[in-house]
Amino acid sequence: MSAIISVAELTLLEYLGKHSGRSGERIGLAPKPITRDLRISMEQFAEESASLAAHGFAGIRNFRPDANDIPSSKCSAIWLTKKGEDYLRSHRLAPASGALTESSH
Tell me, what DSSP letter sits at residue 29? Predict the structure, then answer.
């Protein structure tokens, strides 16, 4: 089964690829600088990052539960996963077809 990722999600994934450090590192990036650099809202960031995480392309850490032990759904850090690195690598090598699909592995 193939999943389609949007241009906005690809842009976020490429940003993570450029700013996450060397391959294999799990360096969490703060959302605020990302939203500022990409000129997107926190809502857009939340949607795009959740989609990338659902595909396994990015990892997300949410803020810790509050004083009432209620878990947070707000992202405190995001990073590129190995699967995301592989996707970016294959996307760069693929001919420009206009299709942004996840290939079956």
Answer: B
